[in-house]
């Protein structure tokens, strides 16, 4: 029998896994896509997991003390997760975010009690298309505020806690829910924690599980493509930068997805599966469909549906359908 939770933090994780059979059939591919519905976390994204793990590990290590503020750079999802966790635990959270990200995220963080600092994009940047240069500006702001406030920096691009969240929990849940019937894992590279944690965790269960890194066509730095214009619409990743958390030896292959492919796949998920998710979820499923239509025909692929489509209503993801 279900128990009453002590706080919403206890509702983080243990998300359902769904067999996306309809979209695979519509695409005419052979094989199975098993998707973790991470947008059913309290903050509507997979980043709730890393937020909770970062705060709890910092508390245990004595790095975060009562009354101390917490600061982080975010595209919105990690910030939302930290807003929730910090609200429950009594920490003041300061989110630093590029003005290029969707406004829904900033509004949600403010509603959850966070202080939101919006950072101007680099000259020439396009709203809705956050580049590595834009992210560098946000990082500078986060570092300054951390120093000025004597805050704890919940650094999702560097803290091992973010990988631990997925290695210890998400990967284990995937394995158990799929009864070990997993051949492939695909993930759109953001901070790198989901790829690193799930890839390392799944390969501990079975070494021959193949793990593919998904990148935007315009910013496929890990695949070794030249970056002529790193701008793209797939928010939350594809920053054309080296990711400290990612062990490249875990990458068994690379898949590129265009803006149009990510958008159309996200829309198809809504129409065919009843799944209302964001850009990067569309990118993940698109990559899986490409693999099932090619070198991974007939295999079982696991992935995450990263966040809710509700966070993109001000963008063109679901505009004028």
For the structure shown, list the relevant keywords.
321 residues, alpha/beta, Rossmann fold, 2 domains, four-stranded parallel beta sheet, 9 helices, globular
- End-to-end Cα distance, whole Å, is 42 Å
Across the major sheet, the strand order is: 1-2-10-7-8-9
How many domains, as an integer? 2
- The CATH architecture of the largest domain would be 3-Layer(aba) Sandwich
Instruction: Summarize model confidence as the mean pLDDT.
Output: 94
Instruction: Characterize the overall form.
Output: globular
Mind telling me the C-alpha Rg? 18 Å
**Tally of DSSP β-strands:** 10
Low-confidence segments, given as residue ranges, are none
CATH C-level name of the largest domain: Alpha Beta
- The DSSP helix count reads 9
Give the H and E element order. Answer: EHEHEHEHEHEHEHEEHHE
The multimeric state of the shown protein is single chain
| Topology-level CATH name of the largest domain | Rossmann fold
Approximately how much helix is present in the residues?
A: 25-40%
Percentage of residues in DSSP E strands: 15-25%
What is the SS-derived class? alpha/beta
Summarize the structure in words.
With 321 residues, the protein is α/β, with parallel strands linked by helices. It folds into 2 domains: 8-40 and 170-312, 3-Layer(aba) Sandwich (Rossmann fold); 47-153, Rossmann fold (3-Layer(aba) Sandwich), CATH 3.40.50.1100. The protein has 9 helices and 10 strands. It has a 6-stranded mixed sheet with strand order 1-2-10-7-8-9, with helices on both faces. A 4-stranded parallel sheet has the order 5-4-3-6, with helices on both faces. Helix 2 crosses helix 3 (77-89) and helix 3 (77-89) runs parallel beside helix 4 (103-111). It is globular and about 55 Å long. The N and C termini lie far apart (42 Å). The model has no long low-confidence stretch (mean pLDDT 94).
């Amino acid at each position: 029998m279900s128990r009453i939770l002590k706080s919403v933090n206890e509702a983080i994780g243990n998300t359902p896994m769904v067999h996306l059979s309809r979209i695979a059939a519509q695409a005419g591919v052979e094989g199975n896509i098993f998707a973790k519905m991470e947008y059913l976390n309290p903050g509507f994204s997979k980043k709730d997991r890393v937020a909770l793990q970062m705060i709890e590990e910092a508390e245990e290590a004595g790095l975060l003390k009562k009354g101390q503020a917490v600061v982080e750079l975010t595209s919105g999802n990690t910030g939302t997760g930290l807003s929730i966790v910090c609200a429950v635990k009594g920490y003041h959270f300061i989110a630093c975010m590029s003005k290029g990200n969707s406004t829904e995220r900033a509004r949600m963080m403010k509603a959850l009690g966070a202080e939101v600092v919006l950072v101007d994009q680099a000259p020439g940047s396009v709203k809705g298309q956050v580049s590595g240069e834009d992210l560098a500006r946000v990082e500078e702001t986060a570092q300054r505020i951390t120093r000025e406030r004597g805050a704890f920096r919940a650094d999702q691009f560097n803290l091992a806690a973010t990988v631990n969240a997925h290695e210890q929990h998400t990967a284990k849940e995937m394995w158990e829910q799929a009864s070990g019937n997993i051949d492939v894992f695909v993930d759109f590279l953001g901070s790198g924690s989901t790829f690193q944690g799930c890839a390392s965790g799944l390969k501990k269960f079975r070494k021959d599980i193949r793990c593919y890194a998904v990148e935007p066509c315009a910013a496929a730095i890990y695949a070794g493509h030249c970056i002529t214009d790193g701008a793209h619409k797939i928010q939350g990743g594809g920053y054309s930068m080296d990711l400290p958390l990612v062990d490249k030896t875990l990458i068994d292959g690379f898949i590129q997805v265009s803006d149009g492919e990510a958008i159309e796949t996200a829309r198809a998920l809504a129409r065919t599966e009843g799944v209302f998710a964001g850009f990067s979820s569309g990118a993940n499923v698109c990559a899986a469909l490409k693999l099932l239509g090619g070198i991974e025909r007939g295999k079982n692929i696991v992935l995450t549906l990263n966040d809710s489509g509700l966070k993109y209503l001000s963008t063109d993801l679901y505009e004028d359908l």
